[in-house]
C-alpha cells in the first residue's frame, strides 16, 4: 500500500499484506497502520516520510518501521526494528521491537519501551521524559536538556544530560557473559536526583550534585561505586563489592558497605557525616570541615578533618595478615 502526495495525507486505519509507504510533502495523519502478512514475503515494512508533522495511532510492522518528519505523535510503535528520526519533538506512548529501537527529536517523551537489542534515545535540543524502558542489550539516553525517568534497565545503562537527571531506578542487571562492562553511567551538567542505581559491575555518577536512596555495584572486588560531583552528596545507602568513592563539597551517607580497594568519603569544602560504614579493605574519610560518624570499620582506617572529628566507634576489625 503506497500513498504519495505533494501536500498532506490524512487517512484512517490501514491494514496490508505487503509494505505500507506513506510519503507527503507536508503532514501525515493516520489511524492504526498494521502489517498483517505472515512474514513470508521479502519486505513487509512500514515507511512514513513527511515534510511536516506525523500523527499516528498504533503502528505494527512485520519488518522494519521507519518514520521521518517534523514532530511525531504516536500511540504505539512496533516492528522488527523501530527508527524515528524527527526534526521536531517526539511523543510516543509505547515502543517495542524485535531487534533495536532508535528515537531522535528535539525533545522526546516515551511512556514505555522494550527491545532485545539496543535502545537509543536522543533529544537534540530539549528535555527527555521516559517511563519504563528496557533493553536486553544497551540503553542510551542523551539529551541537551533535562532527563527524567521512572525505570531504566539494560546490560549497560547510560544517561547523559545537558541539564539535570531525575528519576526512579536505573539498573544494569543483565547477568550474561559479555566483554562489555555492565555499568550504570549517569552524567549530568546539573543535579542527579534518583531513587536508586544498581549494576552487575560499576555505578559511575557525574553531575553538579547527587541525591539518591541507594547505590549498589556488583559483588566482585573490582565492582565499584564512583561518584564525583562539585556539589553535595546525600546518599541513603551504598553497597559495593569493590571500593566506594564519594567526592563532593559535602558528603552525607547513611549506611555503607564495601569490599576491595580503597573506599573514600571526601568532602572538599564541607562536612562528612556517615551513620555506618563497613569496609573489608581500606577506608579514608577526608572532611573539609568536620567529620561525624556512628560506626566505621575497616582493615585500615584513616579519618582527617580540618575541624572536629566526632563519632561513636571507629575500628579495624578484619583479621588477616597484611603488609599494611
Distance between the termini: 75 Å
Mean pLDDT: 94
Beta content: over 45%
Which structural class do the helices and strands define?
Answer: mainly beta
Which consecutive residue ranges, at least 5 long each, have pLDDT under 50?
Answer: 318-324
Radius of gyration: 24 Å
Q: Main sheet, how many strands, which sense, barrel?
A: 18 strands, parallel
Q: Number of helix segments?
A: 0
Helix percent band: under 10%
Q: What is the general shape?
A: elongated
Describe this structure in words.
Helices cover 0% and strands 62% of the residues. It is built from no helices and 34 strands. It has strands at 2-5, 9-10, 14-16, 20-24, 28-29, 33-35, 46-50, 54-60, 65-69, 72-79, 82-86, 90-97, 101-105, 108-115, 119-123, 128-135, 138-143, 147-154, 156-161, 165-172, 184-188, 192-199, 203-206, 210-216, 225-228, 233-240, 244-248, 251-258, 262-267, 272-279, 282-287, 291-298, 300-305, 309-316. The strands form two sheets. It has an 18-stranded parallel β-sheet that branches. A 16-stranded parallel β-sheet has the order 1-4-7-9-11-13-15-17-19-21-23-25-27-29-31-33, with no helix packed on it. It is elongated, with a radius of gyration of 24 Å.
Topology, element by element:
Elements: E1 2-5, E2 9-10, E3 14-16, E4 20-24, E5 28-29, E6 33-35, E7 46-50, E8 54-60, E9 65-69, E10 72-79, E11 82-86, E12 90-97, E13 101-105, E14 108-115, E15 119-123, E16 128-135, E17 138-143, E18 147-154, E19 156-161, E20 165-172, E21 184-188, E22 192-199, E23 203-206, E24 210-216, E25 225-228, E26 233-240, E27 244-248, E28 251-258, E29 262-267, E30 272-279, E31 282-287, E32 291-298, E33 300-305, E34 309-316
Parallel strand pairs: 1-4, 2-5, 3-6, 4-7, 5-8, 6-8, 7-9, 8-10, 9-11, 10-12, 11-13, 12-14, 13-15, 14-16, 15-17, 16-18, 17-19, 18-20, 19-21, 20-22, 21-23, 22-24, 23-25, 24-26, 25-27, 26-28, 27-29, 28-30, 29-31, 30-32, 31-33, 32-34
Amino acid at each position: 500500500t503506497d500513498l504519495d502526495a505533494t501536500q498532506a495525507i490524512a487517512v484512517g486505519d490501514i491494514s496490508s499484506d505487503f509494505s505500507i509507504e506513506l510519503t507527503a510533502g507536508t503532514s501525515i495523519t493516520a489511524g492504526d497502520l498494521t502489517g498483517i502478512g505472515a512474514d513470508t514475503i521479502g519486505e513487509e515494512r512500514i515507511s512514513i516520510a513527511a515534510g511536516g508533522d506525523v500523527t499516528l495511532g498504533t503502528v505494527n510492522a512485520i519488518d522494519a518501521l521507519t518514520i521521518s518528519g517534523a514532530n511525531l505523535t504516536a500511540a504505539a510503535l512496533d516492528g522488527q526494528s523501530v527508527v524515528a528520526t524527527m526534526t521536531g519533538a517526539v511523543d510516543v506512548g509505547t515502543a517495542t521491537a524485535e531487534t533495536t529501537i532508535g528515537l531522535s527529536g528535539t525533545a522526546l517523551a516515551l511512556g514505555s519501551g522494550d527491545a532485545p537489542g539496543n535502545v537509543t534515545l536522543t533529544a537534540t535540543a530539549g528535555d527527555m521524559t521516559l517511563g519504563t524502558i528496557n533493553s536486553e542489550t544497551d540503553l542510551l539516553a542523551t539529551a541537551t536538556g533535562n532527563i527524567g525517568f521512572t525505570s531504566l534497565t539494560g546490560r549497560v545503562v547510560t544517561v547523559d544530560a545537558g541539564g539535570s537527571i531525575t528519576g526512579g531506578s536505573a539498573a544494569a542487571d543483565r547477568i550474561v557473559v559479555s566483554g562489555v562492562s555492565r555499568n550504570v553511567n549517569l552524567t549530568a551538567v546539573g543535579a542527579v536526583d534518583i531513587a536508586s542505581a544498581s549494576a552487575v559491575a560499576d555505578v559511575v555518577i557525574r553531575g553538579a550534585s547527587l541525591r539518591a536512596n541507594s547505590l549498589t555495584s556488583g559483588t566482585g572486588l573490582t565492582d565499584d561505586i564512583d561518584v564525583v560531583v562539585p556539589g553535595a552528596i546525600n546518599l541513603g545507602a551504598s553497597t559495593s563489592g569493590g571500593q566506594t568513592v564519594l567526592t563532593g563539597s559535602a558528603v552525607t551517607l547513611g549506611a555503607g558497605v564495601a569490599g576491595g580497594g580503597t573506599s573514600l568519603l571526601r568532602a572538599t569544602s564541607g562536612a562528612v557525616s556517615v551513620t555506618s560504614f563497613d569496609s573489608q579493605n581500606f577506608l579514608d574519610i577526608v572532611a573539609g570541615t568536620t567529620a561525624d560518624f556512628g560506626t566505621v570499620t575497616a582493615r585500615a582506617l584513616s579519618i582527617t578533618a580540618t575541624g572536629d572529628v566526632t563519632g561513636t566507634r571507629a575500628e579495624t576489625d578484619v583479621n588477616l595478615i597484611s603488609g599494611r
